[in-house]
Each structure stands twice: as structure tokens, then as C-alpha cells.
Amino acid sequence: MPKSILDLIGHTPLVESRTLNTNPNVKLLFKLEGHNPGGSVKDRAALNMIKSGLDRGDFDRNSKLIEATSGNTGIALAMIAGSFGLNIELVMPENSTKERIQTMRAYGATVTLTSVDVGIEGARDYAEEKVKNEGFISFNQFANDDNWKAHYESTGPEIWRDTEGEVTHFVSAMGTTGTIMGVSTFLKEKNGKVQIVGVQPTDGASIPGIRKWPEAYLPKIFDARKVDNTLEVTQDEAMDMARRLAKEEGIFSGMSSGGATAAALRLVDTLESGVVVSIICDRGDRYLSSDLFQ
User: Fold this and answer.
1) Where is the Tryptophan synthase beta chain-like PALP domain positioned along the sequence (predicted)?
2) Would you call 40 a catalytic residue per the annotation?
3) The one catalytic residue among 27, 42, 188, 226
């Protein structure tokens, strides 16, 4: 039976590190979210936010939708909104890679670029103003329970199933925190001893997809009790590891995946045994115009 493109979201591969992991007593597994049709882990949250919102009647084809994004969520929303006949405006900083901007427009979204000086926080402020003053409706992924529930319902169960319940540690970059919140909730229900490790940038580091939010912008879906440990990575660490993933593991991904992998390897070196799962959240082809692979 032919599937729609939306049926291909989820069920992504879990593969073992062949070279980067040098601890023979620990398995390091990569969850390859770039295999989603929109190219990132954000396909899961975008689909759940759109389908659940439509089911509740929060919006319809006549609604004016808007969302601030650093990139991957915007691509996912553009792809899925288009398939439902929805109109959406996506707001992102003007220094976003041209691949991301062009991909969103290819899917039919309106893309608004905000000043690099105000960053993603400024994009969020712009979207909120249009919600308040111009009748737009925002998914507000930072406060939308449909974001983390997508991972509670799909990503977490897939990891549990594919490791046959043997996962001991889960490592994820933290942006909107939807992935880590949903996976943590599910895995902790299955085994309260599973350790959840969040990855943040060091002060001053700029790593797309990983944020250390100012208190005023901290995602409302974030619950610090669901994260057992937080590791910080530098921008150079994230970039170097993204390059090593491509060259040594054949895994082509973005900088945030490099950051998560750097943290995961640091964790693996401290363990006597275990099964560590780390999220590879997207594909590297949307960073080719940046200096990541130069």
C-alpha cells in the first residue's frame, strides 16, 4: 500500500559507533533523525503540533499561522503545513543558512528574516507581536505540550524497542527541549535508572540548535527534574565533531549533532559499562553554505 510522505516520519535507524567510541565495554548508538523526510528530528514535533491543533480546532485553512524558528522546526512545519493546505509564516534570524531559507520557501512558506543582533529571541518577539496585534496563531513550540509528547509517543518508544530495553543513558542537545523532555518521560517510566544527559553550549558559543536560554526565554515545556546531568560543549568541539562524524563514521550531520556526540563521547569515557544513545538531529546538507565543512 503506498504511503504518504507523513507516514515516513519516525522509525529512524539506530546505528552503533564504529570508530569514535574507543571504550569496548560501552555501546554508543546514534539515532539518525536526518532520515525523516524533512531531514530532522523536528518532523516529529511539527506533525504532532499540526495534527493535534487541527483535531482540537485551534486553527484551520483560513488561519494565519506563524512560528519563530532557528531552522529545522521551520522546515518541518513548512513541509507538513503545505500538505494540509495551511498557510504559515516562519520567522528566523537573517544569518540562517540559505539552504534552510530556500527549503522553507520551496515548501510554500513565507519566510521573514529578523536582525542577527536580536537572534532567535528577537524572532520569537516578532512572532508574539503578530499574534497579539494581527490575529496570527503561533504553535509556540517552546510552550506547546504537543512538542514533547511527539517524542514521548515515538522517539522514546523506538529507542526502548531498538535497544531491547538495555539503554542506560540518553544524550540530547537542548534547544526547545521537546526531544529530551519527551524521551526522558518515556524512558524513566520504563526504567527509572536510565540517565538523561542534556547538552548546552558554553558561554559565548554559537551552536545552531543548542541553546542556553536567558531566564525570560526558557522553554515552558522544560522541566529540569527530567534531566539528570548537563554537559557543556564549545563551538569548536561541536564543529570538529560534526566533521569527524562525517569523515570517520559516515554520518553527515549538523553542528548540534556534533555537540551532542562530543558530550556523549565524554560520557562514554567515564563509564564501566552501558548502552548510550545519542541523537543525531539532522542532516549536514543544510549547512553546506556555512563554514562547517570548509
Assistant:
1) 6-282
2) no
3) 42
Please write down the HEC assignment for all residues of 219-288. Answer: CCCCCHHHCCEEEEECHHHHHHHHHHHHHHHCCCCCHHHHHHHHHHHHHHCCCCCEEEEEEECECHHHHC
pLDDT bucket at 291, cuts 50 / 70 / 90: confident
Task: With CA atoms as reference, report the closest residue to 84 among 163, 6, 168.
Answer: 6
Do residues 69 and 144 make contact, with C-beta atoms less than 8 angstroms apart? no
Q: Establish whether 256 is a catalytic residue.
A: yes
Q: 204-219 as b/e, with b when 16 or more CB fall inside 10 Å?
A: ebebbbbbebeeeeeb
CB 70 within 8 A of CB 209: yes
Which pLDDT belongs to residue 120? 83
Q: Whole-prediction pTM value?
A: 0.94
Q: Which of 184, 256, 257, 290 is catalytic?
A: 256
Specify burial of residue 181 (Cβ count, 10 A radius: 0-12, 13-18, 19+). Answer: buried
